[in-house]
Amino acid sequence: MNKSLAVAVTTLMSASLVLSACGSSNGNSNNTDNANGNASTNTTNDTAANAPSNTEPANEPVAKDVTLSLRHTQIKETSKVRLKILQDVVAKTEQENPGLKINLEGIDEVVNRDQKLKAEMAAGNPPDMFEVFGGADLSLYVKAGRMLDLTPIIEELGIQDKFASLDEFTIDGNVYGLPFGGYSEGVFYNKKMFADMGLAPPKTFDELLTLADAIKAKGKTPFALAAKDAWVNGMLWNTVMERHVGIKGFEGLVTGETKWTDPDFVAGFADYAKLVDNDYFTKGALGLAYAEQGAKFLKGDAAMVFTGTWDANRFTGDEAGDLRGSVGYFSFPSIAGGKGDQTSINASYSNGFGFSSNLTDDQKAMVKAFIKNFFNEAIQKRTLLEDKVLPSMKLSDLSGVDPLISEVLQVMANASSSWKAFDAIVQPSVGADVGVGLQELIGKVKKPDAVAKQIQASQDKANKQ
Amino acid sequence: MKPALRNPWTYIAFVVPTLLLYSLFFVYPVIVSFIYGLYRWDGVSAKAFIGIDNFTRLLDDATFLKSLGNNIYFMAFSLIVNIPLVFLISIAISKVRRMRGFYKSAVFIPVVISTATVAILFGVLYDYDSGLFNQALRAVGGESWAREWLSNPHLAMLSILIANAWQNIGFFIVLCLAAILNIPKEIGEAAKIDGVDGWNETRFVTLPLVRPILFVMLLLTVSGTLKVLDIVQIMTNGGPFQSTEVMSTYMLKVGFRSMELGYGSAIGVAMFIITMAMTGILHRISRTEEVHF
């Protein structure tokens, strides 16, 4: 073989290898519609979206081609319903706006939140529309200038006052995201078991202890718990602690006004430890993943489970079996002598949609169309009925709602105030150390005051930075 | 030799693509992590240069030291328990005459299953109420024998190690078995003529001759256990209360959960250095003990 020919061929082969490797990464960042396969329309779509200009052929004046990417996390079996609603809204928006193409991309929630979206935000190339959490995540992205200010859009649509709360998405008076649902945290209980044992939902912490002892005496676990993931333990503890110190107490931690080692904080840890030491929780909880606690509750092993209302869908679904229709919900009881608001509830509207700040004007118009179709009473009602997610917008018509859901809405309406979870207040590193401390309490390896001291040390370090 | 093979450009053309990919996916990340390690950075907003603070912080970070300790425990267990076990099973399989192929595939099956699946499977086996282990223990010794495998900090690491051993020894057995079967028959026959019994044959003939493979296993074990992530992440997520935290799970938590990407990068760099030092030392040792036949 000719020498130079051989060299040329190998160079070509190796070059194509390198290029093909690069090609896939290009595809990911810009045009996700490569995968669709209908090449002819796609190319026009792309040029129109990337450079919306007057170079378009003059014979097609009506439909302007706009492409938007939409990142969602509804990929699990349990979120099928929610995905369907989203797909319907997308289809409707595309139908109403010829030339619009919305590409849905579903990935795992944790991967999106902790890795993918964060990396894209750092690099400045987030998807056009995406699911985002309000609070700490959002403020980070707003600070970096990556989020589209939605204030003018929702004012134009006249929906700015329709939301239950936009607090978590509002920064310096501007709205950067819209929640598609909310949740509250409280105690789900097995009504059948309560009736069989002659028990009623407790009003005070002492009543709760008596109740739990009675359940234990009958050979059942009072509270189902899966403690492998720290956030799960944080829920019940968070409410116990709020009863003791109040939400102002949590807010003071960051400024140094209050300390984890203050007597009322230690009392909060001690009351939580009391629940552990009395063996009210599932045995071996530290090795169980979150889904297990719902399973133990539905199987009838445990009488109660403290969790968020996002599980209401599961508790009213097929998995509930015989328990279907006999699951109730009550707010955590009050604790005598505590500084907190004793009838308050942890509720939040933090899970929502955000939009990229590098959209073109055409894309912004389409975002507006999407918002109009997604954030309205009809879709919110449908979400409530089918997905059992608490509506983020105020609804006038509540007919046909599942009994458990109306109980949940009732409890929320009766709450004297609502507050956001501790990990949205303290620094992430402190939140992580609270998780460790609670596991140490559950594992009975540390005393409440030792745990408090250790978390305060972490708080001091975080406050200094 | 063909003229094309004498042209240095031919070689460059073959090597460059690999080098490019290697630098893009290995050299560049290592350098960049080291640089990130010098900053306080949450991953999105502006970086603040803090010199080697992140690295000095590592030295008195109790959790990091604990996770390093767990990595070493992991490594020690694999070296002391797994490798002798591998050698024993390999010898045993090499001695059987019938159905050797069956045994070979049987031990290799766990290797084919993905680690995530193995981790979840063992999670089910370790379940306090309904897990196989506890059911067996209860059947033998009653309720008091049941153990909280994954939620007891003293047992959790051991539970992971057992699952890990179950999955990994198959691969090593196949390696070791190949080495044993490769030993020329004449050596074994000569030993037999000299009146050597089974134990002495294993001790003085087989063991020295498979030493190169043992070193390969040693190297793979050391580097594998220092960077172990998946099985720990899925089985315990470092818990309960960080008693099974290893360096890589801690790095992930610090970098992405606590949003301290700078410090997380520093942990990554530390892992890189520790692994490199360990494998470097092993390499040295292995080179001085070459065996030929």
Automatic annotation (TrEMBL), chain A:
<dbReference type="Pfam" id="PF01547">
    <property type="entry name" value="SBP_bac_1"/>
</dbReference>
<dbReference type="InterPro" id="IPR006059">
    <property type="entry name" value="SBP"/>
</dbReference>
<feature type="signal peptide">
    <location>
        <begin position="1"/>
        <end position="21"/>
    </location>
</feature>
<feature type="compositionally biased region" description="Low complexity">
    <location>
        <begin position="27"/>
        <end position="55"/>
    </location>
</feature>
<dbReference type="InterPro" id="IPR050490">
    <property type="entry name" value="Bact_solute-bd_prot1"/>
</dbReference>
<feature type="region of interest" description="Disordered">
    <location>
        <begin position="27"/>
        <end position="62"/>
    </location>
</feature>
<keyword id="KW-0732">Signal</keyword>
<protein>
    <submittedName>
        <fullName>Extracellular solute-binding protein</fullName>
    </submittedName>
</protein>
From TrEMBL, chain B:
<feature type="transmembrane region" description="Helical">
    <location>
        <begin position="204"/>
        <end position="226"/>
    </location>
</feature>
<dbReference type="InterPro" id="IPR000515">
    <property type="entry name" value="MetI-like"/>
</dbReference>
<keyword id="KW-0472">Membrane</keyword>
<feature type="transmembrane region" description="Helical">
    <location>
        <begin position="12"/>
        <end position="39"/>
    </location>
</feature>
<dbReference type="GO" id="GO:0005886">
    <property type="term" value="C:plasma membrane"/>
</dbReference>
<keyword id="KW-0812">Transmembrane</keyword>
<dbReference type="InterPro" id="IPR035906">
    <property type="entry name" value="MetI-like_sf"/>
</dbReference>
<feature type="transmembrane region" description="Helical">
    <location>
        <begin position="105"/>
        <end position="126"/>
    </location>
</feature>
<feature type="transmembrane region" description="Helical">
    <location>
        <begin position="72"/>
        <end position="93"/>
    </location>
</feature>
<comment type="similarity">
    <text>Belongs to the binding-protein-dependent transport system permease family.</text>
</comment>
<dbReference type="GO" id="GO:0055085">
    <property type="term" value="P:transmembrane transport"/>
</dbReference>
<feature type="transmembrane region" description="Helical">
    <location>
        <begin position="155"/>
        <end position="183"/>
    </location>
</feature>
<protein>
    <submittedName>
        <fullName>ABC transporter permease subunit</fullName>
    </submittedName>
</protein>
<keyword id="KW-0813">Transport</keyword>
<keyword id="KW-1003">Cell membrane</keyword>
<feature type="domain" description="ABC transmembrane type-1">
    <location>
        <begin position="68"/>
        <end position="282"/>
    </location>
</feature>
<dbReference type="Pfam" id="PF00528">
    <property type="entry name" value="BPD_transp_1"/>
</dbReference>
<feature type="transmembrane region" description="Helical">
    <location>
        <begin position="261"/>
        <end position="282"/>
    </location>
</feature>
<dbReference type="InterPro" id="IPR051393">
    <property type="entry name" value="ABC_transporter_permease"/>
</dbReference>
<keyword id="KW-1133">Transmembrane helix</keyword>
